[in-house]
Write a structure and sequence with these properties.
Blueprint: H1 8-22, H2 24-57, H3 66-90
Length: 91
Amino acid sequence: MGLGGISIWQLLIVLAIVVLLFGTKKIRNVGGDLGAALKNFKGAVKDGEDEKDKDKDDEDDNGEPKSLAEGAKAENAAGTSDTVDKEKEKA
């Protein structure tokens, strides 16, 4: 017994019929195209993961992009000192 109740002889007969119908050249071309497509897919998945990791590295602890977080910190620092100065003037 082979795969799921199909014997090795049945598989060989099906393979022989496929070769007779399509020919070895066409089967080889389909196999090469399928291999190239799989290679491109793996490359695209890897590029997507690399881009996701890069985006993750660009974020700070709050999940904001570093450039925005640095700008917000600078504004907070400037705003805090202005507020402190105004409070000193009132007193």
